[in-house]
Specification:
Length: 778
């Protein structure tokens, strides 16, 4: 027997029950020698071949069925054999006949196949169904991989029809002696007749067989001319418990057009793109018994074999190895990043760092040396560490320092099996304020980090199978969650750290993100999350409920925060003294006032020092005295100042800019600002920049992009005190205004052939800068 390399296997064959495993191995054309697998992997494996395809048959030795065990088989398989790209999930299931349209009989085969609006498998909660009578779909699952769907298409047009081939495989296996032929043969009509009872007729309780059940209650069906199995393509319903109630079965199959009920598919499809194949062994009602299970399993295996024979020849292992080892490179990473979309968190971090003051010295040593941080780092039972604090307490600066510290720590250890990735949420930017963006950002950072070269393949294989637009559809979030879990199962790493700043600023689908954080921890013990957020009860409640959280409250560590704020004041004061040539007594007074008024809030110090930069040294103390302590007081003062600063034209332009910024879903460029805020059209970028800078300290400019200095600044303008002045007619009105202005601008600018290309067949690559200039600011 030829020894093969693990990378030679790209198709998995997953079974839940030992009898399904036996049937699978029995139909293989050849069995290969065993291969070593991950030490924590408890699966039973058999390696073999059907036609030209190498397959790995995987199952649990204990034969526990259900979603969770199936999911475990898939996770193990994926971890030990990352080359496996697709799976067949082959075994038995309960039929759901609706006569005459779906005349499903025992020994037939049901194959998951997409119908409009569904990928072929419905995940539902049986418990809820029983309690409420309502069918509640609990998961959205992908359609089977194209490679199998096209094989099915080939299959359907085959002559003679596949049923005959399957029958032949089955009899060949039974004659070969590789299985117990008595057990796996088709049950005889005398002992175990194929009877479908009326849906409302319950089984005579206590009996193993239907010996005492009323034969008058059997549904009459036309006899078939042969025992050849029929193949049915359509929906399979997958739940965590067994369906054994005729009336419910009929109702659901009528309602949703379900052909089969089973308990494994959803667990596997979550992990690996799969096709589900079910041999029908009962009718999902109270009459179900085990008599048909072995035969049905063998028929399903026969179908799977026949399907594998339809697949084209696999790539030779040499070629594929080259692809995986050598050419997973810049091009692939680029392709994956393009498909993912979203922003690059590394750039976001750089931008935030350049707009904030550098963290001072060892401002986080009290966190690093604290009990909770150490426990989080070392022990698995509390995988979420949440740092909570009010606005302006320096959460983002702490996060940046922690990222730098952890990256450095892991980088220093060259043998480290740790991967780290981070994301900064920002409510004022629609590219950074929703759950999907967070997951995309975390993934894109992992796959593009040259320290983790192997991780990109999980995304690559997914895109190869499902296409580049995969992450644009409404199920993208679920797909990305699944991919994230796959990435985190990579055997080369033992811990994945995800750091997310400002969870409270994830305003789109925060709930989904919180659930994802909890569920990934529950599913994979190698995942840890470190998050920061304001004191928000719903975030706290979610993590507390899951029992996974360790918390560090900045309010409870007021002393440590105050020490760092003092250090910060000290460094800011040094700067001011040099720039503004403060006399010693002024320096002392300013320092004193900053310490008194800051109230342990970095942002307050930052903003106050910005104000101090604007005034001469003799005015510094008076200016500080005029600033109220507390952030909202501060913002209020800035707004009042704007209002009374005299130059009426200036005030009007500033409030126009501020109201545009409050309504906008993302930061605005200086150029856009003219249209969006309806500034005089003769203003150029420099004029706009000057104007933005005179809007108190609400806004900041980085690389010609205007954004809020802090989320709390926007909150202030958006809420009662601020909004009365800035958006007196309400936010709705403001949106309408922006819309109208944008439309007016488009009307003015848009015309046929706006780039003067003159031809329709102009290639994008030939587009020159001057062509693009015309549309850049639109
Ligand atoms: Zn019965």
């Amino acid at each position: 027997m030829e020894q093969r390399d693990p990378s030679d296997y790209r198709i998995g064959w997953i079974c839940a029950l030992p009898l399904e495993f036996t049937a699978a191995v029995a139909v293989l054309d050849a069995v290969h020698p065993d291969l070593p697998h991950d030490e924590n992997d408890t699966n039973a494996y058999r390696f073999g071949q059907v036609g030209q395809q190498n397959v790995i048959v995987a199952g649990l030795p204990s034969g526990v069925y259900g979603l969770t065990s199936a999911a475990r088989v898939a996770t193990n398989l994926r971890r030990s054999f990352p080359s496996v790209k697709y799976c067949l999930v082959v075994g038995i299931g309960g039929g759901a006949p609706i006569l005459p349209k779906n005349d499903i009989r025992l020994g037939d085969v049901v194959v998951s196949h997409p119908i409009p609006g569904c990928g072929g498998v419905l995940q539902y909660d049986y418990g809820k169904l029983v309690n409420t009578g309502k069918f509640e779909q609990t998961g959205v699952l992908n359609k089977p991989p194209d490679i199998f769907l096209s094989a099915i298409t080939k299959f359907k047009s085959a002559y003679p029809p596949p049923g005959k081939e399957i029958e032949e495989f089955v009899s060949r296996v039974l004659n070969s002696g590789s299985v117990d032929s008595k057990m796996f043969s088709r049950p005889s009509p005398e002992s175990h007749c194929d009877r479908l009872f009326k849906e409302s007729y319950e089984h005579f309780s206590g009996d193993e067989t239907c010996y005492h059940c009323d034969l008058d209650m059997v549904v009459e069906r036309p006899p078939r001319s042969s025992n050849q199995p029929e193949i049915h393509y359509g929906l399979i319903a997958s739940a965590n418990q067994v369906m054994k109630h005729g009336a419910t079965r009929s109702r659901l199959s009528e309602e949703r057009n379900i052909l089969c009920f089973e308990m494994e598919a959803a667990g596997v499809m979550d992990q690996i793109p799969s096709l589900i194949i079910r041999g029908i062994c009962d009718y999902s009602d109270s009459h179900k018994n085990k008599a048909w299970q072995h035969y049905a399993a063998l028929v399903a295996a026969g179908y799977a074999k026949e399907l594998l024979l339809q697949l084209g020849p696999p790539q030779t292992s040499k070629k594929r190895k080259n692809r995986e080892d050598d050419t997973i490179e810049t091009k692939d990473i680029f392709e994956c990043l393009e498909a993912l979309g979203g922003t690059n968190p590394t750039d976001d971090k750089n931008r935030i760092e350049s707009s904030k003051d550098k963290p001072i010295g060892d401002s986080i040593s009290w966190i690093l040396n604290g009990q909770n941080f150490k426990q989080w780092l070392a022990i698995k039972d509390k995988p979420i560490l949440r740092i909570s604090g009010d606005p302006g307490k320096g959460k983002t600066m702490i996060m940046i320092s922690l990222i730098d510290h952890m990256t450095e720590m892991f980088d220093r250890d060259t043998g480290s099996k740790i991967a780290i990735s981070y994301f900064f949420c920002q409510a004022t930017d629609s590219r950074l304020n929703n759950a999907l963006a967070v997951v995309k950002g975390l993934l894109s950072q992992l796959i593009s980090n040259p320290r983790y070269p192997s991780l990109v393949r999980y995304l690559k294989s997914e895109i190869d199978i499902r296409g580049k637009n995969y992450f644009e559809d409404p199920n993208a979030f679920y797909a990305l969650e699944r991919i994230l879990l796959n990435v985190c199962a990579d055997p080369q790493y033992n811990t994945f750290y995800f750091l997310v700043d400002a969870l409270d600023e994830c305003i789109g689908d925060l709930d989904r993100l919180l659930k994802l954080i909890c569920s990934t921890c529950a599913k994979a013990s190698r995942i840890r999350w470190l998050v920061t957020s304001r004191n928000r009860p719903e975030i706290e409640a979610q993590f507390e409920y899951a029992g996974l959280q360790l918390q560090i409250s900045l309010e409870e560590h007021g002393e440590q925060i105050n020490t760092t704020v003092e250090a910060y004041i000290h460094s800011k004061l040094q700067e001011l003294c040099i720039k503004k040539r403060y006399r010693v007594d002024i320096q002392e007074q300013v320092g004193q006032l900053l310490r008194e008024k800051a109230g342990g809030t970095f942002l307050w110090v930052h903003l106050a020092c910005k104000e101090l930069e604007k005034v001469y040294s003799y005015n510094a103390v008076a200016t500080l005295n005029g600033l109220p302590s507390g952030l909202n007081g501060f913002y209020g003062e800035m707004l009042k100042y704007l209002d009374r600063s005299g130059y009426n034209n200036d005030v009007e332009l500033c409030s126009k800019i501020l109201s545009a910024m409050v309504a906008a879903f993302r930061p605005l460029s200086l150029q856009e600002m003219v249209t969006i805020a309806e500034l005089p059209s003769e203003m150029n970028e420099i004029d706009v920049e000057v104007q933005v800078k005179s809007c108190g300290s609400f806004l900041t400019i980085h690389k010609r992009i205007v954004s809020f200095v802090h989320q709390s600044a926007k909150d202030f303008l958006d809420n009662n005190i601020g909004s009365r002045l800035i958006i007196p007619n309400g936010l709705g009105y403001q949106h309408q205004e922006i819309f109208t202005r944008s439309m007016r601008q488009l009307e003015k600018e848009l015309r046929t052939d706006i780039c003067s290309l003159k031809r329709l067949d102009f290639a994008v690559k030939d587009l020159k800068a001057e062509h693009r200039d015309v549309i850049d600011h639109l």
